Amino acid sequence: METNNSLIELHEGRKHIYYFLSRFFIDIPDESMYEQISSMIPAFSIIKANNMIKEGVIGLEHFISKRNKTAGEDRILFDNDILNDYSILFCHKDKINLYQSDYTTPYNKSLKDELAYLYKQYGYELEDNNYTDHISYQLSFMGYLAGITAININKANHEMTAHLLDVQKEFLNTYMFSYINTFFSSIAKIPESALLYYACAAMVLGYVEYDYKFLSKNS
Fold this sequence. Notes:
By secondary structure, the protein is an all-alpha fold. The chain is 70% helix and 0% strand.
């Protein structure tokens, strides 16, 4: 029972980490995001085996420390700078691409529908299929599957648990690993990523690498 409880807690933790990571590139940065970053840093700090996670932790700690040193008008200016960085990185004409299909050569017209079908098989559906290959929704899907895994462990449904672990491993391998390194490199090249988003991208890259190794050992 203790072993099952530990596994349930582990996959619930994975769920919350993926949902946290999914916010970076879909939500406009705000106070709730900064509070969540502060609360989540310790969860990543205990992972010593991945250099990108370490780099992400250092960057996020520096960001929070720098922000905490501001107050009043300075805090408003600091937060406006982050909003400006978000806009430059993800909203302008020469923005960072956030969709897997933007990185496929040649362009894969069926990718979005392919992902929509996969999502629907597991009860994760988006209202608009145009968003299925967005990095944030892919990360969210991983969090969703991790949550379902925890539920099936609790029900002692071993066959479904094993299947879900395989699905998560293959999802990372087939979809996210096809572009995540290029995505990170694109962000790293832009100066406006220095305050926050370089660290966010490093954290995402590091965690999917780390989680894939975990899934490979346990599926």
